[in-house]
Every structure is written in C-alpha cells, then in structure tokens.
Amino acid sequence: MAERLARWPAFRFTPTVRISLWLGVVVVGILFAWGAWQRRWIADDGLIVLRTVRNLLAGNGPVFNQGERVEANTSTVWTYLVTFAAWIGGPLQLEYVVLTLALTLSVAGVVFVMLGTGRLYAPGLRGRQALLLPAGAVVYIAIPPARDFATSGLENGLVLAYLGLLWWMMVSWSQAPRINPPAPNEAGGNATGRVFEGSLAFVAGLSVLIRPELALIGGVALLMMLAAAHGWRRRLLIVVAGGLLPVVYQIFRMGYYGLLVPGTAVAKDASGSKWSQGFVYLTNFNRPYLLWVPLVLLGGLALLLLGVRSLLWRKRGHVTRTRGRWTSLVQSPTAVVVFMAGSGLIQAVYWVRQGGDFMHGRVLLTPLFCLLAPIAVIPIVLPSGMRAVRGPGYLLAGASAVFWLAVVGWSLWAANSPGLGSDATRVTASGIVDERRFYAQATGHAHPLTAADYLDYPRMRAVVAAIDNTPDGALLLPSGNYDQWDVVPAIPPPLPPPPVGAAPVFASQRSGPHTVFFTNLGMLGMNVGLDVRVIDQIGLANPLAAHTARLDDARIGHDKNLFPDWAVAEGPFLPMRPFIPPYLDEDWIAQAKAALTCPDTDAMLTSIRGPLGVKRFLSNVLHAATFTKYRIDRVPRYELARCGITPPPPKVPPYTGMPATGP
C-alpha cells in the first residue's frame, strides 16, 4: 500500500495542466446540469419504468401488470437501480427520485469521459506547460436532445455514466504496462492487479444489462482484456467477473419471462432492419444542428493530434519474454481509442439499420458520445514547455486553439438552436417528434414531471373517471372523443347468495376487472391502480401484440398494431352487441377467441401467465428461444388458417352479392 501511495498520482501534471483539466470538468458539469434542469421533464416511456418499480415495491415482481410476466423495460440495471433508490428514498415521490438519479448520472458520465480523456493524454504532458480544454464534451452538452434526455426518466443518464466509467477504466488499463512494467524475469506478464482487472471485467460485462445493444461494446472490451491477459487464472477471473451476473440474469429472464431478450426487443423486432427510415432519422438528427461541422472540426483536430502522437501516447508498454508484441498492441492507448471510436460507429450503424426511433435524436446520442470520447478534452501544448524549436511549437498551439475556438463557437450556436422548429410537435411522415416539446404542449406544463401532470394529457382524466364509473369492471377503449372512453362491460361473475342476515352487496362496493387498451402506457399506468391491467396495441406490455409481425410502413417504434378485438376476446368482457362499440366485429372477436386456443399461442401465454414453479421455470428456459421467435397474425381469420383451426360459424351471414336478375 505504501508503495502504491508513493507512486500516486500515476502521471504528475504541471499546475497549468491539472488546473485547466479540473476547471474544464467543473464548468462543463455545471453547464450540463444547468442546461438539463432548464429542460427537465419525464417522458411517458420513463413513467413505464416507474410502473414496474411500483409493482416491485408492492411485491408483485418485476412486471408491468400483475399476473403477467412481461419485461416492459429495456434496461435491467436501470429498473433495479431506480427501485433501490426509491426504497432508499422512502416517502419521496417516485418521479422526483428518478429525476434526481437521471440528472446525477448524466453529469457523472460527462465528468468520467473528460477525466478518462485527460488521462489518455497524460503521459505526453508530464513536465510540459499545457492546457487541457474541453472539446468533445462541449459539443455533446450543446446538443439540445442531450440535455432533454438527461432528465427524461429513461436510461440515457445511466448509459452516459456507464460509458464514461468504462472509458476511464479502459484508458487506465491501457496505460498500466508503462506504469507497472513487469520485470524481465517475472513469471506473469500482467501489468494490472487482480482487483482492478476484475472490476473492469465486471463493468464491461454489465453492458448487456444496461442496454442489450451495448453488449457490442462490453463484449469487445472483454475480448481485449482476454487477449492481453497472461495465464489461465487471470483469464478465468475476467470470464467469471464479466460473465457471471449477465449469465445468471439471462437464465432468470428465460425462466421468468420465457424470452431470450427483453420484451421490448420482441415488440420492436430489434433484429429487423429499416435502412431507409434509419437514414431519415440520421438526417433528422443532423440537419437542425449541422452536426457535421463539429465532427469535421474535431476530426481535423484528431488528425493534428495524431500527427504529434509521439508527444502524447505513442509509447507502448514494455515487451518482455512473457509479454509479446501482440499483447502490447492490444493493451495500449491507441487500441483503446480505436475501440471507443469504432464502438461509436458500430452503434450508429446498428441504429440506422434498425430504423432509429420516434424520439428526435435519442438513440444516436450514445454513438455520438462514444465518437467524442477520445477527444472529450484536447491538449494545447504551450511553446515554452516544448522541447522542439519555438516555431513549430507556436504553429501546433495556434492550430489547436483555432480548432478549439471554432468548436466552441459552433457549440454556442447549437445550444440555442430551435431544433426541429415548427415540426417539433407534429407527427409528420417521418414519425419523429421532439418528445419533450410534444408533451409540454399536450399537457400544458412546461416541465411535465409527475404522473399528475400527465392527467392534463387528452383522455387521461376521462379514463380515471371511466374506471370509477364501472365498478363491475370493463374494457376501456379510446374513442374519437378525447373526453370519453368506449366501454365494453365485464361479464358479471356468478355471485353466491349472501348468507342469511348479511348486508346486501351494492354495485359501488364491487370491484370488477378493468383493462385499458391504449398506446401511452406510462402516463396511464402511473395514474391508475396496480389492479388495473394496462395493455397496448404495439406490444410493450401486451404479449399478444408483441408477437405479431412488424408492419413495414408504420411509424417507427410503433410498427405493430393489434386490433382491439383481441382484447375483448381475451375477456372477461361481453363480446356481442350492444355491448361492443360499432367499430368492433362480433365475428372477429369470435375468431380471435378461437385463435387463442392455438396450442403454440396457448403455450406462449401460459409460460408468462401460469403459476411459476420450478417445473414451469425450467420449461421456460428450454423453450425461450422458440417463444422469442414465435409470431402470430394480427388478423384473427388468418391466424386461424395459420394454426389450422376451423373458424367458428359467422354470427352475421356473409355478403354473397346481389341476386341474379334477368329474363
């Protein structure tokens, strides 16, 4: 321990370097926190997470609806982190818990990435007079969507904190060989200690539980560590530390939810592709802020730094008989820079292939953050501290300063950009909107934060009133009138006669089953009781909708659309006129009810609705791959044909055309 303290810090900066770095970190962190607070809100999708948290705290398990094991949240870590914070917070309102947590993690992510990049340049700045100025970090916080999603209640803040921490740790790992070079006759060639390497492997392995697509980042980090590790004990440590928790949770997911992936991945068919829509999304993100400008500027600055990399990070770790050139190449700052920038490009390609999202800019923030990480701060080496002639020194410092001032100028312009302008709150052909402005306008609250704020969204107060007015239970469907809901009454359960002398049971004292069929699950789920089943037509919380096929021309992120007839068929609701609204069809309902008897569909539904015991858990694990790939047809009659089930006789005689006429 004394030896380690004597070597701390690993790289001794001059006061100008250290002060400029920490001053930049503090200023950027404060600006980001202030900017995010000015645009604070919690998205409808953020409230979806809180519905699951309510069920966890109530003892119903990690579900969206009681008795139906559906994983409605993409980020596993975010769900349980919010639950833990809510448990710690006690009586504090859930919305304020998640707001605080999201903002704190967002700022922490920017701080981590700046410190990691500062450490990246540290070896070349020892003993030099230089400034470390924020560059890529300034670009990121200047983009309005980055500030929007810092407090949205979604996992964006967690993703930033995770990537920033992983970057800082990977940079430290890459520099270990030059800080702790193994002795020439040392039996092992590992430059990092077991505790640090185990911790880094654990962080890298968490990627798939932060968001599934981040496994492309964490997985590569683990492969780099395995390639550089020496000895089977160290490799075993990396595998166990990085893979144990993800594997354990994957087994739990398969047994509990009956799927290989989160339910949201099935609902959105994350393995599908919509390239054309993806390029529309990329253009939608770039055009309002001219993102190509800072990327070109920072690219030029990166090339400039690459040209003088011998001053910054070119020196590699020691090569010994136990540490070969391949290991030295993998465990090097250059490899880590390529890893992070490459990860950003891969993430961008993934989301463009997927079709992007319906929220302006949201899913491309992660690729951008990765691309900006290696240049989150930049060094400007002052001529007085250089060992070369003063002419080239002034040229290098001047060119770096010009690039930096141009980046700062763009950032000031972009931070005040109107964004999507008049299209921000309109669902145009692209299907992409500025979600924060959309909900601010729709609710009348500049900062919609709580579920109560969303009661001012169309239909919300009406649904609460409709539930109160149907004590015997009902299926509620959105009508054309935003102030009312269409009601399909529940089938009255048989009630035993009251005991002799007992008081009669009045309708107002009964509480029948309620199901609400609506797209906006978050605001709805947080404004009704946990005993109310809330489902949607796009499949985030509705297993039937999730297992339908993706529609080619539907709005991105909403490209599944289950007919409400299926909700009536699932019951227990009266499936005939005059109890159903005119846009429902009795025959479709009867056909959907028959289709639910399809053996494969019944097995899929039973896996998440039946009582969970050891036998069912093991069965779900064995059949999780089959259930994940299983798809049904959203048209009941076509689904009957797919399953080979005879359609029920029509309640209304089919139209056969006009009778023949003539002589």
Q: Please, could you describe this protein's structure?
A:
The strands form two sheets. This protein has a four-stranded mixed beta sheet with strand order 4-3-5-6, covered by helices on one side. The chain is mostly helical. The N and C termini lie far apart (110 Å). The protein is elongated.
Give the end-to-end Cα distance, rounded to a whole number of Å.
110 Å
Number of helical runs?
A: 28
Radius of gyration: 29 Å
Shape: elongated
Summarize the helices and strands and which ones pair or pack.
Layout: H1 2-6, H2 15-38, H3 44-57, H4 76-89, H5 94-125, E1 130-134, H6 136-142, H7 144-148, H8 156-179, H9 194-205, H10 207-210, H11 215-228, H12 232-257, H13 263-267, H14 275-286, H15 292-307, H16 325-330, H17 333-354, H18 365-372, E2 377-381, H19 390-415, H20 435-443, H21 460-468, E3 474-478, E4 485-489, E5 514-517, H22 521-527, E6 533-535, H23 543-546, H24 565-570, H25 586-595, H26 599-609, H27 614-629, H28 636-643
Parallel strand pairs: 3-5, 5-6
Antiparallel strand pairs: 1-2, 3-4
Key attributes of the depicted protein:
two-stranded antiparallel sheet, mainly alpha, 4-stranded mixed β-sheet, 4% strand, 54% helix, 663 residues
Short description:
The chain is mainly alpha-helical and 663 residues long. The protein has 28 helices and 6 strands.
